[in-house]
Design brief:
The chain is an alpha+beta fold and about 270 residues long. It has 4 domains: about 1-65, no CATH class; about 70-145, GMP Synthetase, Chain A, domain 3 (2-Layer Sandwich), CATH 3.30.300; about 150-210, no CATH class; about 225-260. The chain is about 25% helix and about 30% strand. It is built from 7 helices and 12 strands. The strands form 3 sheets. It has a 5-stranded antiparallel β-sheet with strand order 2-1-4-3-5, with no helix packed on it. A 4-stranded antiparallel β-sheet has the order 9-10-11-12, with no helix packed on it. A 3-stranded mixed β-sheet has the order 6-7-8, sandwiched between helices. A hairpin with a 5-residue loop joins β6 and β7 (about 115-120). The longest helix is centred in the first third of the chain and has 28 residues, at about 70-95. The protein is elongated. The model has no long low-confidence stretch (mean pLDDT about 90).
Length: about 270
């Protein structure tokens, strides 16, 4: 048996497994861990637990130590460097006339590398930009182009529901979202009403999609002709929360009924 602990490096980022060693950790504790890029600053997201050796694909990196005052000072210094690097990079982008939108800069914990995140319509030749950044900042530079949904996740914001956008709060991995999900839930297909801050379909369209499919599965489709105790009619809408549907009769009268009110036609 091995003991593992889940560490998160960003607010809504992926949780990575580490070896806690002899440390007694609580959720929310901030720690310094060993990563492939050197030491990293993370937060305990999942409490230590034991797992079978076979469940681990590869040896785990270890918790190096609990974060100290010196580490918090280093983190603050990194944040100041990120702000300076962001401003300088924006000036360089404007000077070079590059068609790109810079939105975030992240530093390694030991400040050995700066990663610049940007969005763009197509490929961008940023070789000259990298030279200018390395000369000014005196550290390794990486330019990373990401999608518009990743930009929303990293920048955050408030959605039309009045809460912080889901991607920045708890979504670790994006799931495919389609217009069919909005149709299945009877939502408006107006793009301005079902799109998020990123301009793409809202991630929350996936939350109740399967439930709506299950509720609608046994009900007659909208537009189908059915026979009821009151006569033949056409299904015009569903009331899924009550598993009922509305039928319009030939005389124009509308009636809400359930499956038990249908009459099965013979032959």
């Amino acid at each position: 048996m091995k003991k593992i602990v889940g560490i998160r490096f960003k607010a809504a980022g992926k949780v990575y497994d580490f070896d806690p060693g002899a440390f007694v950790l609580n959720r929310g504790d901030q720690v310094i861990v060993e990563t492939e890029q050197g030491l990293g600053f993370g937060t305990v997201a999942v409490l230590p637990a034991e797992v079978e050796d076979e469940a681990l694909a590869k040896p785990l990196k270890k918790i190096h130590r609990l974060a100290s005052e010196k580490d918090f000072a280093q983190l603050q210094a990194n944040q100041e460097m990120e702000k300076r690097a962001f401003r300088y990079c924006q000036d360089c982008v404007a000077t070079l006339g590059l068609q790109m939108c810079l939105f975030c800069v992240e530093s390694n914990f030991d400040a050995s590398k700066l990663t610049f995140f940007f969005t763009a319509e197509g490929r961008v030749d940023f070789r000259q930009l990298v030279k200018m950044l390395v000369k000014e900042l005196g550290t390794k530079v990486e330019m990373r182009q990401v999608g518009i949904r990743n930009q929303a996740k990293m920048c955050g914001g408030v959605g039309r529901c009045g809460q912080e956008v889901c991607c920045a709060r708890f979504i670790e991995k994006f799931s495919p979202v389609s217009i069919r999900m909005a149709k299945e839930q009877g939502l408006s297909l107006n793009p301005t009403k079902i799109s998020g801050l990123c301009g793409r379909l809202m991630c929350c369209l996936t939350y109740e999609y399967e439930t709506y499919r299950e509720l609608r599965a046994d009900l007659p489709k909208v537009g189908k002709n059915v026979t009821t105790a009151m006569g033949k009619g056409r299904v015009i809408r569903h009331n899924l929360s009550n598993r009922r549907f509305v039928v319009r009769l030939p005389d124009g009268q509308e009636s809400e009924i359930g499956l038990e009110d249908l009459i099965q036609e013979k032959g």
